[in-house]
Amino acid sequence: MIHFDESIEILKQIKIDNYKTKKLYIMDALGYILAEDVVADHNSPEFPTAAMDGYAINYEDMPLGRLKIASINPAGSALTDAVLGGTCIKTFTGSLMPEGADTLIPIENVEVDGDEIIIKEEVPQGFSVREVGENYAKGQMLIPADTKIDFPQIGVMAGLNIVSVMVYEKPTVAILSTGSELLDLGEVQTNDAQIRSSNNYTVEAIVRKYDGIAMQLGCIKDDKASIQKAMADALSKSDIVVTTGGVSVGDFDFVKDVIGELGCEVLFKGVRVKPGQHIVVARKGDKFIVGLPGFAYSSTVTALLYVVPLIEKLQRGRSALRMVKAKLKEPFIKRARKAEFTACNVSLLQGEYYVDFKGKKVGTSAILTNMLGEAALLVTSEEEHSKEVGDEVNVLLFG
Ligand SMILES: Nc1nc2c(c(=O)[nH]1)N[C@H]1C(S)=C(S)[C@@H](COP(=O)(O)OP(=O)(O)OC[C@H]3O[C@@H](n4cnc5c(N)ncnc54)[C@H](O)[C@@H]3O)O[C@H]1N2
Ligand code: MOO
């Protein structure tokens, strides 16, 4: 078994030969990763523009105190009139500044007397005039490739009249739970040894939450030929195949053998991590197979640790899971000489994270309910030992 850090380093070092990209209408691109740079093809604004409703004047005319209103300039109109000596033009927020005007005096600062304004309160030169390129200049890089498209990116692209953009495709993740004891949702129990399968649904939820396209394949019996057929089929239809169960040392644990027989390159199998020590990650071209252990807590934690980064890698995304520092409110007993991911409660108090274990059960890796509530994962490396109240620890947030 390899060190946990080595397994993460192996994932980081993976090079994708050919990223899949596609062009999407900008609104459909929300949540995708941009596969091209977005560069401004014009200045914004292109011309000096009024930022308030008022009167466009030449600053040098301000001392006159009284100016004739020469014309009116609503937003969107192609005004040809200019501000000539001693005159002003009524101009509105968003209107282009007329020729000859460099300052906008707001409506609130003047009194109208017939066809003239009387200036009650002066403003500095250039007041309320948006300069050319105030927002962005032509040629400016606005959104670099590999950015996740969120609402500001959508708005900026719309401002650039970009109708569709190149994005990385979200990888398709096929999910298959193995185990002859498993009952899928709604399936009728026929003997006491059967249990309800949860792993395939937890993994599907993780895939969906962290920007993959989930392909739910349900449960399959511990039969090598069936597993082989199902995995080969899944591999042909998806970018990542995630299995749960059948990766340890039992007589019916076939997943590792099948991965080998499918001609995959095993990147690692077996990591000094708790839970999840039997994890296997393999590659075939730009496709991946991740064999997660069967226990519900193990498969969930290892999906976060190994499946989420692969989903991100295939679309050049950044890690959505955040590691923060926190203070222990209770002692932590280190149980294994491995990296440990222990379910805990996390709270934020005056800008600092705190960790306790109230209500968390100590037991096997079957206890998924430990991840309910304001849960997070306390992370300790294989080199670390038990910890005291007040010690600083690392916590992985997934909420
Ligand atoms: N002799 C050894 N036995 C075990 C070892 C070991 O090193 N030596 N490792 C233990 C650890 S750690 C884990 S984790 C499990 C992993 O084994 P598998 O990946 O082969 O998983 P299974 O045996 O198929 O299942 C384990 C457990 O989880 C339940 N399960 C399975 N699938 C699901 C599902 N889809 N939803 C909910 N629960 C599921 C299954 O019924 C078992 O109880 O091996 C230990 N044994
Ligand atoms: O690997 Mo198991 O997941 O430690 O319980």
UniProtKB/TrEMBL annotation:
Essential cofactor(s): Mg(2+)
SMART domains: MoCF_biosynth
Enzyme class, first EC level, given as a word: transferase
GO biological process, one term: Mo-molybdopterin cofactor biosynthetic process
The UniProt record lists the keyword Zinc-finger: no
GO cellular component terms given for this protein: cytosol
Record-listed E.C. numbers: 2.10.1.1
GO molecular function, one term: molybdopterin molybdotransferase activity
Record keywords, A-Z: Magnesium, Metal-binding, Molybdenum, Molybdenum cofactor biosynthesis, Transferase
Segments forming domain MoaB/Mog: 174-313
Catalytic activity line of the entry: adenylyl-molybdopterin + molybdate = Mo-molybdopterin + AMP + H(+)
InterPro entries (UniProt xref): MoaB/Mog-like_dom_sf, MoaB/Mog_dom, MoeA-like, MoeA_C_domain_IV_sf, MoeA_linker/N, MoeA_linker/N_sf
Pathway connected to this protein: Cofactor biosynthesis; molybdopterin biosynthesis
Family, similarity comment: Belongs to the MoeA family.
Function, in words: Catalyzes the insertion of molybdate into adenylated molybdopterin with the concomitant release of AMP.
Protein name per UniProt: Molybdopterin molybdenumtransferase
Species this chain originates from: Sulfurovum riftiae
Taxon lineage: Bacteria, Pseudomonadati, Campylobacterota, Epsilonproteobacteria, Campylobacterales
